[in-house]
Design brief:
Elements (H helix, E strand, L loop, with lengths): L5 E5 L2 E6 L16 E4 L1 E3 L15 H4 L3 E6 L9 H11 L4 E4 L1 E2 H9 L8 H17 L3 E5 L10 H13 L3 E5 L7 H15 L3 E3 L13 H13 L4 E5 L4 E5 H5 L9 H9 L1 H17 L9 E5 L11 H7 L6 H14 L3 E5 L3 H9 L3 E3 L16 H16 L5 H8 L1 H7 L15 E4 L20 E6 L2 E5 L2 E2 L15
Parallel strand pairs: 4-5, 5-6, 7-8, 8-9, 9-10, 10-11, 11-15
Antiparallel strand pairs: 1-2, 3-16, 12-14, 13-14, 16-17, 17-18, 18-19
Helix pairs in contact: 3-4, 4-5, 5-6, 6-7, 10-12, 11-12, 14-15
């Protein structure tokens, strides 16, 4: 529970928390009755998209985030040490840690091919995992929805998960399917944790496609049953009913994306294979991430044509002189991939499922966002608003969570999950990562059509004892640190 009090900080560390602290301080911040919370820990981000251009990570710091975790969905830099060393030299405002991606490891050893690994290849992948964990990875991430993760049998994932377990790491997964096979995917995520002997997490937990709405009940029942028998399984979630990934991954079948870009284009040029791809794409637009209508697919960014950002698949289909039917939208999707592809936003989730997952005690908050360059493209608003949206909409306005429970889901819960023993709570000896906000005014302002808008209601943010945001502006301080996993050597 919250209480009124003072916090004393020396250097980067909290040295005292008490109802009242007397004495002389170099600087005093009067929170003025606002909430003083541990800084928020975002356990699932794509921060390497943009952090070099915006090392202050304004979109995160302005909503109280003091730590971001990279390397999700099976994708990470390899080797990991040079990436982390470069981030340390960059000097960021926020702390950063990273997972090692199973898909990146598999791609390094065997390419993006659809076959089982040989024992020799598994040995090489295991060696890469060992190196990454010693470099400081927090665990292993899987993207079993994506190429090449989708080509990976569960037992191969478990073999690598065992390496992460040996070094005290955890597993987090973009599951194999969030639509019709979502329950089988949850079972697989649980199995990886059980077989690998490590904590396991359903990343950005969701249910996609109108035919699957309501399956969050069965999903959470599987989670509860696994936890009851001793499996350490948890979830994370962003508070929006739209997802975001590449148009190719969302709306083309995985088999069509095997191999190199040249391989993909060759399939699209072959009439028989193109017809198969179109048939599968029609089903994916109708039943899965397409949300049953081309207008539910919005473009976040398109490298070959930046003017498409913010438009929908229906808009582009009309622009190409076609009615925006689902078959015509599938044709447009294939054309898009041939041009170079786009990142998309997919409106295909239910508010009821979102709220049900959010309320579950094993769910923590994570943005699945990036570090946008302000004003460029049309990113998912989760990058700017996730934490403020939970506090404003789901705590204050709709009373889905108490303030204390929401803060737990953003701070001590992810800290414990990641093995951070010196962050996530406010007490003596902990690092002074702190967010100060007004619960009466905190809110997200970013929208799907106008995403480049910062959260409101935050008064000040400190990282390692230094103020990085106050009075509505970033400060020059860059005190962020690299947070390493327990296996670092």
């Amino acid at each position: 529970m919250w209480f009124r009090g003072d916090i004393a900080i020396q250097g980067d560390t909290i040295v005292r928390v008490a109802p009242s602290i007397e004495g002389v301080a170099r600087r005093t911040i009067d929170a003025g009755g606002r909430v003083v919370s541990p800084g928020f820990i975002d356990i699932h981000t794509h921060a390497r998209r943009g952090i070099n251009q915006v090392p202050t990570a304004d979109n995160y710091t302005r909503q109280g985030v003091t730590t971001v975790i990279e390397g999700p969905d099976g994708s990470s830099p390899l080797p990991l040490r040079p990436f982390l060393d470069a981030l340390a030299q960059l000097r960021t405002s926020v702390n950063i840690g990273a997972f090692v991606g199973q898909g990146s490891v598999r791609s390094e050893v065997m390419g993006d091919v659809n076959r089982k690994a040989t024992p020799e290849e598994i040995g090489r992948m295991t060696a890469l995992m060992e190196t990454a964990m010693r470099d400081g990875a927090l665990g292993i991430s899987t993207g079993l929805f994506y190429v090449p993760g989708t080509f990976t049998p569960t037992d191969e994932v478990i073999a690598l998960a065992k390496v992460a377990a040996k070094y005290g790491g955890m597993h987090e997964s973009h599951q194999r399917d969030d639509a019709s096979k979502v329950l089988d995917s949850v079972r697989e995520t649980i199995a990886i944790g059980e077989g690998g002997g490590l904590p396991t997490q359903v990343s950005h937990a969701k249910v996609v496609g109108t035919a699957n709405f309501g399956k969050s009940k069965e999903m959470l029942a599987l989670i509860d049953a696994a936890r009851a028998r001793g499996v350490d399984v948890t979830l994370d979630q962003y508070p929006y009913t739209a997802s975001s990934t590449s148009v190719a991954a969302a709306l083309l079948p995985a088999w069509a994306l095997e191999g190199t870009r040249a391989d993909q284009l060759a399939r699209l040029k072959d009439p028989a294979q193109r017809a198969r791809i179109k048939s599968d794409s029609i089903a994916m637009i109708r039943d899965e991430r397409g949300g049953g209508d081309a207008k539910n697919v919005q473009f976040a960014s398109c490298g070959f044509d930046p003017s498409l950002a913010g438009k929908t698949l229906a808009d582009l289909t009309r622009q190409r002189g076609l009615e925006p039917t689902i078959p015509n939208a599938a044709d447009t999707t294939m054309w898009l991939v041939e041009q170079g592809g786009c990142q998309g936003i997919f409106h295909a989730m239910s508010e009821d499922d979102l709220v049900r997952i959010l309320k579950h005690p094993a769910t923590m908050i994570a943005s699945d966002g990036e570090v946008p360059i302000f004003g460029r493209a049309n990113p998912h608003p989760r990058s700017y608003g996730t934490f403020a949206r939970v506090l404003g909409r789901y705590v204050r306005d709709e009373h889905v969570l108490t303030l204390e429970e929401a803060v737990r889901k953003m701070t001590s819960f992810p800290a414990a999950r990641l093995g951070f023993t010196d962050r996530g709570v406010l007490r003596p000896g902990m690092k002074a990562d702190i967010a100060i906000f007004d619960p009466a005014t905190v809110r997200d302002t970013a929208t799907f059509t106008a995403p480049h808008q910062y959260a409101e209601g935050f008064f000040a943010v400190l990282v390692n004892g230094q103020v990085i945001f106050e009075n509505g502006a970033m400060t020059p301080a860059r005190p962020g640190q690299i947070l390493y996993g327990r296996g670092r050597r």
